[in-house]
Write a structure and sequence with these properties.
cytoplasm; 260 residues; cell projection; elongated; 5 helices; cytoskeleton; 4 strands; single chain; repeat; coiled coil
């Protein structure tokens, strides 16, 4: 029975140690800075540090993965733009080839020649429409005002709207659609969360460092003041008539944790 009791006590002790270690790993080990406070010498002002938790071990790996996915999406968009440009160039090349094949259609006869002629006519019409659009764009670019130019009529309209109309946003419209580049995706949400978490962690660390510097500064000042008070007390021992003037209490020592 004694051996059984010893084994049960050993098992219970081991279980409690494991439970305690798990609690410490969950609540104590991740803490970089616990809450500490520092007060002014007169006790009217007090400032406390933030209880700061260390970032997860895989935090920077997650950041790198998000950046990699963002880069992949940007490269995909660039490849799409390149593909559009190549398609446009291919269309121009087809137009150039159509002029070469036009001469060869004269050798064809019958229904086949008619089909080829219809295809060539459609290609010519598309080429004309494309050329017309290019000319229209060229005219529009010529009419474009220089950067920084403000139309007086538009300036007056904006001023009138600001003075006489309410603050209406496009988002309040019933047919408002969020642009594709502004839509909140999972990747963008994760990126924002990671940046906010890192920024908050950085600000807390900087603020805690200032609080600890204040505590160290107060400790140094308290030691200097107490040394001077001790010197005054030693000098006052020879002044029997005014010895009560030299009985100045010393400042309390500054502790490392919460201090008053």
């Amino acid at each position: 029975k004694v051996d059984l009791s010893v084994k049960e006590l050993a098992w219970e002790s081991e279980r409690c140690n494991i439970a305690l270690r798990k609690l410490e790993q969950w609540f104590v080990d991740p803490v970089v800075q616990d809450v500490v406070s520092v007060k002014s010498f007169d006790g009217q002002w007090e400032v406390s540090a933030f209880r700061t938790i260390e970032l997860p071990k895989d935090f920077y790996e997650m950041q790198e993965e998000i950046e990699r996915q963002k880069t992949a999406l940007m490269d995909k968009g660039k490849r799409k733009e390149t593909a559009d440009v190549s398609d446009e160039r291919a269309g121009e090349n087809r137009e150039a080839r159509s002029t070469d094949t036009k001469s060869s259609t004269t050798k064809l006869k019958g229904a086949k020649a008619m089909r080829v002629e219809r295809l060539l006519r459609k290609m010519e019409e598309r080429a004309k429409r494309r050329q017309k659009r290019k000319e229209e764009w060229a005219i529009l670019y010529q009419k474009k005002k220089p950067e920084g130019f403000d139309d007086p009529t538009e300036v007056d309209s904006i001023r009138y709207a600001r003075d006489n109309m309410g603050n209406y946003f496009l988002k309040s419209a019933a047919d408002f659609v969020v642009p594709l580049e502004q839509r909140l995706t999972v990747l963008r949400a994760l990126d924002r969360i990671m940046k906010l978490r890192y920024t908050t962690y950085t600000y807390k660390r900087e603020f805690n460092k200032r609080v600890l510097d204040l505590i160290q500064r107060k400790r140094t000042l308290a030691e200097q003041i107490n040394n001077e008070l001790k010197r005054l007390k030693n000098l006052g021992q020879n002044q029997s008539n005014h010895q009560e003037l030299f009985n100045i209490p010393l400042l309390p020592p500054v502790k490392d944790g919460d201090e008053g």
